[in-house]
């Protein structure tokens, strides 16, 4: 799932990730309608890719309209409802007597949250959203349009963001959650954790470089190479998302986040039931 | 009946030094220039002003530490500095607006901005109509408001439209696309086009506005500027060396942006526009357009009052806030005895219902206080 205000490069990111146009450019909207607040939409896009020998069925849910209005309180509730409804579906499916063997799991495994490159840490909107959603989905923080920062500024901004995360105890995905993994993986995860939030630049065109074609973004003063690790964390994030940690995200969603949700939901039901029983007893 | 004739002089007389004489007088009086910066935190407001004046004299009002709480409402932060260049002296006041657009719910975030601007008009009027007034009325009126747009967004957001509409009613507004180093050449064109389209569609009167008194050269210059607006700027006071030259810019792993290069960004155009060509015009337009219409409203009221009730009993004036109706108010006892003027503010309220009550009450306090002195 992609969440972020307009203009941060969500669409471009997914298209670059999948190396094809997954999300089409937005329909040129009527300028007259531009000032009408558009409610947040949930647009689903499905694509299939082969990564390192594995077949991946990728479903992307984009959320245009997030944070674009004057009053954005309802954005969180809508997101939460969406994610919860996917959990509810699974809960329902699990408790069926005759289960559907071809059931498709629609739970959101990763939420990519695009931060605005302000230079002043997290915004109130971001803090609230992460607080509420972190218990239902793995949140990975990204910096959209990160090419507006110089190297020093990125380092400073990342520091500010992580300080905010600590101060407000924000539940973002912790790469080192599995203590039982071997020390090598643990070390790798700690390194990755130090890079969060990932600075992202989207690709616009492909040009011919010295060693073949490279994905770039061209400015009058220079050219940003998307896959160059010195220039952006895109390459690293792609590897993590589709290669190294893909099963971690799915596992964590199923075994931890969903289980917590399930326990909570069932407890609520049990409380309701026991209350009902009590009432019946009282009546008798 | 006086006759006016046009005379062409043959010898040099020397009154063409008027410009220099006027200049000297102006600087003796002191020129006040007041800029308001409106935009979300992190949009580059402070950096831009520091870049325009080539000196880091302003401090950013953004959240610097994690423990610092974000502001709950739009605040007004004023910094005044006296700048000197050759024999010219300017008292520059920068009005920063931290907290603008920062909340989850940003309804009415423009109210403190409009209130501040109108309060300055009130203060100026109050000084102007004093029976004994100062030789030089201190000018705190906002001369230009730089509105910072998010360069990622394709066009104007809803909040931009709402705020711009209201600001353009009371002050000169110049929209700025800051942090433009994230736009490629094509994207820049597209974004500017979309912004201009939206501005035209919603009839937002940004500066400069055509003026019947403009001559051909001025009209041409304004048209040229309008084609570039909104200015896509990048701010920086850091210098780097490139090809043996020292340039001001921003350095990335992929290149150095030279902010003074017109192909890289519109910084030079904007700075020249604000300071070298249109500075006095901004001050004048504020005076004869925005302040003047405010003044006319107020004084019109006084006349209506005087005509409406010759001898009414004096009581404590009641405040009413009815949308389109103007209610004649009772002047306070003090005011009437000192002075026949009694200024009623409800008309101003009636015309712009978005204006909140508390500020109107304070405006009345200013005027009636002034009169009773």
TrEMBL record, chain A:
GO terms for cellular component: cell cortex; septin cytoskeleton. Residues 270-284 have a biased composition (Acidic residues). The keyword Lyase does not apply. The keyword Nucleotide-binding applies. It comes from the Eukaryota. Gene3D superfamilies: P-loop containing nucleotide triphosphate hydrolases. GO terms for molecular function: GTP binding. Residues 263-284 are annotated as: Disordered. PROSITE patterns: G_SEPTIN. Residues 1-268 form the Septin-type G domain. Keywords: GTP-binding, Nucleotide-binding. This is Septin-like protein. It comes from Zancudomyces culisetae.
TrEMBL record, chain B:
CDD domains: CDC_Septin (cd01850). Residues 349-373 have a biased composition (Polar residues). Residues 29-301 form the Septin-type G domain. Keywords: Cell cycle, Cell division, Coiled coil, GTP-binding, Nucleotide-binding. Residues 305-373 are annotated as: Disordered. InterPro entries: G_SEPTIN_dom, P-loop_NTPase, Septin, Sigma_54_int_dom_ATP-bd_1. GO terms for cellular component: cleavage apparatus septin structure; septin complex. Belongs to the TRAFAC class TrmE-Era-EngA-EngB-Septin-like GTPase superfamily. Septin GTPase family. This is Septin-like protein. It comes from Zancudomyces culisetae (Gut fungus).
